[in-house]
Structure formats: structure tokens, C-alpha cells
Design goal:
heterodimer, A: about 120 residues, alpha+beta, mini-chromosome maintenance (MCM) complex, domain 2, about 20% helix, about 35% strand, extended, B: about 190 residues, Arp2/3 complex 21 kDa subunit ARPC3, about 75% helix
């Protein structure tokens, strides 16, 4: 069970790929932020995310998901799914941030003014 | 039915049950709260896949993996099945590839980490296609880094376990007839 040189090489390659993927897209773009809610691959809601006290609430009864937006943040409040990953993701604040509820097929993401060219790969 | 066949069926069934139990049990651990990425898990069932690759052979390992994923869908739903299958099958073949140089260039740690990484890549690609949303930049880096840690963990468990099973004669006694891919001497 001795560690071999190839093992270290694999770890280095995986770390390198991770860092590359983190650095590549232009996250945290400035300018106006747009919140997008996608349900079943269809855009459900798109609005400018502004820093106001006014609270927007989206109650999606069909998949059983509640999403709130306030103070320039958007987040999953609750979900009917088992893993609760979407709720645990917490509040999205920056362009490029994304929260996904796989079981309910609901996506919440924030787009920046210049991030339109980032999301073209998996169409 | 031939005795050898009965033995193979029994061993496969036992390993499917074990893999299924591990994959269901690990869901009780709140790792998703720690790293909030869809589909994140310890990957303990990969211990069984590696065991099968080492001591039963590729067809058997593939059968055990697919059966485990199908039965696991009973607990986690059909959506999860797409990701566990795509990740699992890719991981199996990547581990098989790395195993060709096992003992020389790579140890079980390399096999396990490469398998974890391949599983992550497979499941994120499937999820991206399924949701029509590019999740590669946001989720893959986190999954890959977590995969290194969980890969080391499962490799350590597997390494100790397989060595023990080889040393106490369990492998020679129960798995000699099932082995299709012969390894030279001691595997671990």
C-alpha cells in the first residue's frame, strides 16, 4: 500500500484542473446583477437584483420550493427535496453564483452584465 | 447449476447488497451541509467496486455497479440514477485503466482518487446536460477537491481491508475461482 509517484501526479492534475476551472470564468462581475429562476429547463423568472429592503418571494407549489430575494441576495428558503443541498447553498450574492435543486429541477442563479458568454457550454 | 456459477451469483449478490447498504448509509452523514454541492457523497460504495475490479473482474464489477445504482434509485429517485450511473461507469473504466499500472506507477490511492475524479466529471456532465445549465465551473472544482479527500479515505479503508482479506486467506478461499483478471502475486 505504498504511495507511488503516479498517485501524487493524479492529485496534482486534479488540483490543477480544479484551480483552472475556478479561475477561468469571470466571476464577481460588477454592474447590474440579474437573478434568474429556471424550472424544468424553462426560465420562470428574471429580474434585476437590487439592494432594497423589499422582499420578493416565489412560492413554487408544483415542485414545492420557496425562493426569496432581498438586499441584493437570492436564496432557497425551503424545498421539498430530501438532500436540501439547495437550501444549504445559502444566499447568492455575486454574478456567477448558482444554487441547484436537482430533485426538483429548479435552478437559481445570478448573471452579471458581462457573464453572458460564460454559460454557453452545455446547451 | 454448476457450483462455480452458484458461487459467482452468491458473491455478486452479497457485494451488491453491501454496496447498496454503504451508499444508503452514507446518506445519513450530513456531508451536503458541509459542502453544498448536489450529489456530493463519501463514495464508500466505491470500496466494493474496487474490490470487484481487483478480485472478480471487469464484467462482474460492472454488473455489481449497475445493479447497485438501479436498486439505489428505489431510495433516491430516478433523477439521481442518471448521475450515479454516468459517474459510476466512467469511474469504473478510469480505475480499470489506472489499475494497469497498479503496484508500479500507482497504488490503490491513485486508483481511488482517479475514480472519484472521474465520477465527479461524469455526474457533472450528466447534470449539465440534464438541466441545460453549465455546472462545470461552479460545482466541479468543489467536487474534485472533495473527491481527493474522500478518495484517500476510501483507498485507506480498501487498502487495509483487502490486505487483511489476502493475508487471512479469505481471498484465496472464496475468490480464487471467481477471479477473471489475474494479478501478479499480492494485489495490494
Amino acid at each position: 500500500m505504498r504511495i507511488r509517484i503516479g498517485d501524487i501526479l493524479i492529485v496534482l492534475v486534479v488540483v490543477a484542473v480544479s484551480v483552472l476551472l475556478l479561475v477561468l470564468p469571470s466571476r464577481g462581475a460588477t454592474g447590474t446583477l440579474t437573478a434568474v429562476i429556471i424550472v424544468d429547463n424553462v426560465e420562470y423568472e428574471r429580474f434585476e437584483l437590487v439592494a432594497t429592503d423589499e422582499q420578493l418571494e416565489f412560492d413554487l407549489h408544483e415542485p414545492g420550493v420557496v425562493i426569496k430575494a432581498q438586499d441584493g441576495q437570492i436564496w432557497f428558503v425551503s424545498s421539498s427535496c430530501a438532500d436540501q443541498t439547495c437550501v444549504n447553498t445559502g444566499r447568492l450574492t455575486r454574478a456567477g453564483d448558482i444554487a441547484v435543486c436537482l430533485p426538483n429541477r429548479v435552478i437559481v442563479k445570478i448573471e452579471g452584465t458581462n457573464t453572458s458568454d460564460v454559460d454557453v457550454v452545455a446547451e | 447449476m454448476k457450483r462455480a456459477n452458484i458461487k459467482k451469483i452468491t458473491i455478486s449478490a452479497m457485494l451488491i447488497a453491501l454496496a447498496l447498504a454503504l451508499s444508503v448509509a452514507e446518506r445519513l452523514l450530513p456531508i451536503g451541509a458541509l459542502v453544498p454541492v448536489p450529489g456530493i457523497k463519501l463514495g464508500l460504495a466505491n470500496i466494493v467496486t474496487m474490490f470487484a475490479l481487483f478480485y472478480i473482474g471487469t464484467p462482474g464489477a460492472l454488473l455489481i455497479l449497475v445493479s447497485r445504482c438501479l436498486l439505489g434509485a428505489l431510495f433516491s429517485g430516478i433523477t439521481t440514477l442518471i448521475f450515479s450511473l454516468s459517474g459510476g461507469i466512467l469511474a469504473l473504466f478510469v480505475m480499470l485503466l489506472v489499475m494497469q499500472w497498479q503496484g508500479r506507477a500507482f497504488s490503490i490511492f491513485g486508483i481511488s482518487i482517479a475514480g472519484a475524479a472521474a465520477h465527479n466529471v461524469g455526474q457533472i456532465l450528466a447534470a449539465s446536460l440534464f438541466l441545460g445549465e453549465n455546472l462545470i465551473y461552479t460545482y466541479l472544482p468543489l467536487l474534485l477537491i472533495t473527491g481527493i479527500v474522500t478518495g484517500i479515505l476510501t483507498a485507506a479503508i480498501s487498502g487495509l481491508l483487502f490486505k487483511k482479506l489476502e493475508n487471512n486467506g479469505t481471498i484465496a478461499r472464496y475468490f480464487s475461482g471467481t477471479k477473471m483478471r489475474m494479478s501478479k502475486g499480492k494485489t495490494i
